[in-house]
Amino acid sequence: MGQPIRTFVGRGNTAQIRLRYVFLVAIVFGGSFLFIFINNGIDILFLNNDINSVWKTHRYEVVSPDDTFTIKTTGCTIPGLNPFSDDIKKFIDRPKNIKPCHQSNISLLDNNETHIWIIKENLQHYYVPHNSNISCCYQSFYRPLAIADISSMDVDDRVKYEACIEFSNSIEVMNEFVKVSCIYKEEILYEQFFLFTPKKPFLSFKEDFLEIPQNQTGYNVIIVGIDAISRLNFYRTMPKTLSYLKKKGAIEFYGYNKVGDNTFPNLTPILLGMKDTDLKKTCWPNMRATFDNCPFIWDSFKDVGYYTALGEDTATLGTFNFEKFGFSRTPTDYYLHTFMHEAERYTGNNRDFNSYICMGNKYFYKVLLDYIGNLAMSLKTSKLFGFFWEVTMSHDYLNYPMAMDNNYELLLRKLDYTRYLEDTILIILSDHGIRWGEIRFTKQGRLEERLPLMHILLPDSFRKDFSFAYENMKLNSHRLTTPFDVYATLVDLINVEKIKNENIKARSASSYAFDRSISLFLPIPSNRTCKTADIDDHWCTCHKGQKIAIDSAEAYEAAASLMENLNTLIHGHPQCSRLTLLELIEVTEMLAGTPYESEIGWREFLVVVRTAPGNGVFEATLRHDARDWSLAGSISRLNMYGNQGHCIHHYQLKLYCYCQNE
Ligand SMILES: *[C@@H]1O[C@H](CO)[C@@H](O)[C@H](O)[C@H]1NC(C)=O
Ligand SMILES: *[C@@H]1O[C@H](CO)[C@@H](O)[C@H](O)[C@H]1NC(C)=O
Ligand SMILES: *[C@@H]1O[C@H](CO)[C@@H](O)[C@H](O)[C@H]1NC(C)=O
Ligand SMILES: *[C@@H]1O[C@H](CO)[C@@H](O)[C@H](O)[C@H]1NC(C)=O
Ligand SMILES: *[C@@H]1O[C@H](CO)[C@@H](O)[C@H](O)[C@H]1NC(C)=O
Do you know which Pfam families this protein is assigned to (predicted)? Predict the structure, then answer.
């Protein structure tokens, strides 16, 4: 059994307070794995066996090592959240109900990038005599240019199938979207859809426009969206993908706060820089309108010579199609809706709550991941802006993303070893955390829902050539950020001239502190609040103070806990007097948003006390959970200490020590 490691910051150094939660070692222990955290003492989580073989080999620090707040800035403090806290760990479990796809182990067809063929050995599973002659029909289909009825509600679903090409062994593929039906004795035995990524001619509405010259600077921009995963649920459910990102040096955004309830209002800020409610006035007058007139960011990339792609792993739940009318024009060079709509209709199976999670024998999310990888390879010598969004597996269940972890990691590896990442800005993000289920009755569940995951991976050349932009982005990792900022960031990537060091320097000096969209390549002001970032109070996760009566039981207990923490700090320094409470000056409950009634979770209080001897005034945040009081962050001294601490030579302890012989 492994030895738990305790990380202590040298005694003279912090001596205190800073609770470091370090995710340590998962240890095989009586058939279970243990998770051990250091948190003043040792907290041991027993988790269900089978989840953990992955966590065992993929270690990472759970909470940013240096504080007990998620972020702490002048304008916004988001309370610290531990992904495996007591309130949460009971919801974590390997999902056992995900059913395999229909016929997944007896597929009758297989393919590679150029061919589709019949797997004859599997014929027996279809009650077809061995050596029978079966015939399969290869039908390509596409989205026709001509629109019969522009006001039809299924204008985005239009499709045209080509004639059947029959084959009885294998066939060479020449199309983007293909449906294959295998027939025996006039009955359909098996049907499957296939998706390919041929390089298309570069088309533009502007006549004289050319594809981006290869030698021009400019990075591929690939956005890989995973629906409904909080920053911390990504830690819990996709540790392999996470540690790969960390290993490659991706920047994680701790203070990434959502701005609307579900997918749509969190994606219009990213793709259009607008609130969903702004669209009415600009480009989407009513619910029956299509989105053709909206100035999507991909149009700007197209204008400078990028190929563009929009792909989701669902048609019915698509961002622009769920109870909406989608597009009548084709929005991007590569547009998956046409394919997904047909695939869902003919081979969608394994419906689980809201989604068909399978396309024939293959998970829909996997279809999307393969597509991203293949498209990147097909367009390796061009530039690509791609927006991809997974829904089917992660949308409804907290733990289902565990099933995808391997394949997301594999996609990253593929993009890495093919050196695609060397020219690519990769953004992995979500729209919000899970919005329902038992976890939502906890305070942490409520906050996590408002804090989706976002990681941005920048290539090495970018970090070198755009070092100011890169440094700013690292800084912003611990600032309050929103989907609107992602939009401004993408705008900066259309023409990288704008983020050269001298330009970043000039722009940093300009006034943008009150802008709603601030590029993540510029320093986000530390004093940014939910209000200046245009995050509605309802979604805001920053602390908001509410004074409570100083003669209440909580106020008294919080102050007592603060005194205990103060005395613990100077314990072991006999030259410092033990401090007692002289006056309880003020207690403020620090609310993060509005708690629900009977919400399960901790409460935090900002406490200000005056102590004796020495009249020191101290302020600290104390957290009260089901079991205990604990200190969040460090204790500040609000008045001068003059010469009181002359007998101790540590800059922090000087704040707390009142020398005995004073
Ligand atoms: C395929 O999987 C199903 C269900 O998982 C199982 O019942 C069946 O025996 C398997 N068939 C083969 C040929 O492995
Ligand atoms: C794809 O499969 C076909 C037929 O099996 C084969 O001839 C071809 O070499 C394969 N191509 C690749 C890229 O693997
Ligand atoms: C299958 O087709 C081949 C060639 O078309 C023919 O020679 C053979 O007899 C057929 N077999 C059966 C079982 O019909
Ligand atoms: C880019 O390529 C074009 C054509 O190949 C060439 O004329 C131009 O000088 C190149 N520009 C740079 C910056 O290398
Ligand atoms: C935040 O700081 C900026 C300067 O960095 C200043 O212009 C702005 O007024 C401040 N905002 C608030 C809300 O104090």
Answer: DUF229
Helix intervals (H) in 206-336 = 231-237, 239-247, 263-272, 279-282, 297-303
Distance separating alpha carbons of residues 390 and 397, to the nearest angstrom: 13
pTM for the complete prediction? 0.86
CA distances, 396 to each of 9, 466, 511, 623, 632 (Å) = 42, 39, 42, 32, 33
Q: Which ligand is nearest to the CA of 118?
A: 2
Give per-residue pLDDT as tens, 394-437: 999 999 999 999 999 999 999 999 999 999 999 999 999 998 88
Strands 220-226 and 424-429: what pairing?
A: parallel
CATH of 220-533, one of 3.60.160.10, 3.40.50.970, 3.20.20.70, 3.40.720.10: 3.40.720.10
For the CA of 525, the nearest atom of ligand 5: 5
pLDDT per position as a tens digit, 274-299: 999 999 999 999 989 999 999 999 99
Which residues make beta-bridge pairs with 23? 37
Q: How far is the CA of 128 from the centre of ligand 3 (A)?
A: 14
Atom of ligand 1 nearest to the CA of 125: 13
- DSSP 8-class letter at 654: G
The whole-chain average pLDDT of the chain stands at 87
Torsion of CA 230, 236, 241, 244, to 10 degrees: 110
Question: What does the domain layout of the chain look like in residue ranges?
Answer: 23-69+83-89, 220-533, 543-655
Which of 3.30.980, 2.40.160, 3.90.1200, 3.10.450 is the CATH number of 543-655? 3.10.450
What's the pLDDT band for 31 if we cut at 50, 70, 90?
very low
User: Candidates 114, 117, 171, 374: which one to mutate for ligand 2, based on the most atoms within 8 Å of Cβ?
Assistant: 114
The alpha carbon of 148 is separated from its chain's Cα centroid by a whole number of angstroms, namely: 40
Q: Are strands 334-335 and 307-312 parallel, antiparallel or unpaired?
A: parallel
- Output the CA 178–ligand 2 centroid distance in Å: 17
Is the pLDDT at 34 greater than 60? The verdict is no
Q: Which ligand gives the minimal distance to the CA of 166?
A: 3
Q: Which pLDDT score is estimated for 37?
A: 30
431-450: average pLDDT: 91
